[in-house]
Amino acid sequence: MPLNIFDHTGSRVRTDEAFAAELAALPEAEREDTAEFIARNLDVEEIEAELTAAKSGLAHLRHAEDRARIALANSKVDAIDSLRRYIAASRQVD
């Protein structure tokens, strides 16, 4: 008989036939504790995957922010340079 392992939401996340025989050999209390441990471990793995994805997304956003800051700084430098050239040209006309 296969072993069905459920996560905290009650969804079946794993079926393990090989482990089912080993688990069936345990006393009932240990069997329940072991199944709960496995389910919680699967929850931790899911949370770790979500955290890794969030960290990746954050790194992407930080990179985009850095590019935006550089572009903004460059446009300010360009504006200042243009203003300086305008002032210099105005002085030459006078």
Structure description:
The chain is mainly alpha-helical and 94 residues long. The chain has one domain (3-93). The chain is built from two helices and two strands; from the N terminus they run E-E-H-H. It has helices spanning 17-24, 28-93, and strands at residues 3-6, 12-16.
Quickly describe the structure:
The protein is mainly α. The chain is built from two helices and two strands, in the order E-E-H-H.
Keywords summarizing the entry:
single chain; 94 residues; mainly alpha; two-stranded antiparallel ribbon; 2 strands; 79% helix; rod-shaped
Q: Can you tell me the overall shape? A: rod-shaped
Which regions contain 5 or more consecutive residues with pLDDT less than 50?
A: none
Helix content: over 70%
The secondary-structure element order is EEHH
Distance between the termini: 97 Å
Q: How many strand units?
A: 2
Main-sheet strand order equals 1-2
Structural class: mainly alpha
Major sheet details: 2 strands, antiparallel
Q: Count of helical segments?
A: 2
- Overall pLDDT metric: 81
Strand content: 5-15%
- What is the number of domains? 1
